[in-house]
Amino acid sequence: KMLTQLQRLKEYAAIPLIAKPNAGVPQVVDGKTVYNCTPEQFTAYVEEMAECGVCIFGGCCGTDVEHMEALARATAHLDPKVSTPAQPDKLPCATEKQAFLLDVTAAYGNVLPCDEDLEDALFDEMEEDAELIAIRFESEEELDTFSDCQGMIGKPLCILCEDAGILEQALRLYQGRAVYEGGLSDEALLPLVEKYGLIL
Questions:
Q1: pLDDT per residue over 63-73, tens digit each?
Q2: Which DSSP string do the residues of 97-166 spell out, in sequence order?
Q3: Cα–Cα distance list, 189 to 59, 69, 140 (Å)
Q4: What pTM did the predictor assign?
């Protein structure tokens, strides 16, 4: 199951990936959580994961010394390499549920205020042809409204905001990777790029 997700990430990632799976799917036996994946099964997909750009391997729940020793043996001959995104000239954005590769010329339609009508406005805007949804943030009070509605956003999000503190709070709430438009300085924006993947 993890390999499937890593194969999806390979299309977008330009950074090293980490694979740290459980020792299988947990099962409850006699009231205890049990993992039945043997060390051999645990390492069966190491090479395919490395081909996806995995450079760091580890183990999570259910793994033990034997799993880690098998992992060390299975990875000893590998020469891990970061994968190259399939479309490096595109902007990788994401909503809570879907990833997008946008052209740098992608545009938004109406700029939506983050007010009590946001839910209806988002519903309407999702029906329009614009590639992005644009929301303007002006005050901290709007963040609760955004938190309640952000799950509705089904297109890449462009945030318009002139307050770095409010922008960071919106990024913390947003379950995706957003684009920014506005007049904030590079000094204010670069930490947000690094921390939240904000696209300028």
A1: 999 999 999 99
A2: S-EEEE-TT--EEEEEESSTTHHHHHHHHHTSS-SEEEEEE--TTHHHHHHHHGGG--S-EEEEES-HHH
A3: 35, 43, 18
A4: 0.65
